[in-house]
Design goal:
CATH topology: Four Helix Bundle (Hemerythrin (Met), subunit A)
Strand content: under 5%
Bound molecules: zinc ion
Largest sheet: none
CATH class: Mainly Alpha
Number of strands: 0
Low-confidence stretches: none
């Protein structure tokens, strides 16, 4: 059971939905501005298709310029899915309730501060040196 109250969860859901819309609009605009014909075709679908299919669709195209937006969109989708599943606000690694202040700053946070730091250290260690 999450420590977040219902109104708090609703607020986060709204915040995440708003962010999702912003990202969709930004992705849409970038695709339309591209010279690539395939991208303009994708742009027509960005605003209407379901969240998960959008992330998959964009991932298929490997659009380098949009990598950050697509990654964030995937994070936002995952957070909304956690709200639906009732696990939002719980650390994915240790299961503690994530600090509400942390969620206010990073509504897509999936780990508590400690686990996130440990995770980032590990990710850094695993990055192959060229
Ligand atoms: Zn944790």
């Amino acid at each position: 059971m999450s420590a977040l109250s219902k109104p708090e969860i609703q607020m986060f859901r709204k915040q995440l939905r708003d962010r999702e819309m912003d990202l969709r609009k930004a992705i849409h605009a970038s695709l339309l501005n591209s010279d690539n014909k395939d991208y303009s075709e994708v742009a027509g679908r960005v605003l209407d298709i379901g969240e998960q299919s959008l992330v998959d669709l964009l991932a298929d195209f490997h659009i380098i310029e949009l990598e950050k937006e697509v990654a964030e969109l995937a994070d936002v989708e995952a957070a909304v899915a956690r709200i639906t599943a009732g696990t939002y606000g719980q650390c994915a690694d240790c299961g503690v309730d994530i600090d509400v202040e942390r969620l206010r700053i990073y509504p897509t946070a999936r780990r508590c501060t400690e686990c996130q730091m440990r995770h980032e250290r590990m990710a850094k260690d695993m990055t192959p040196s060229l």
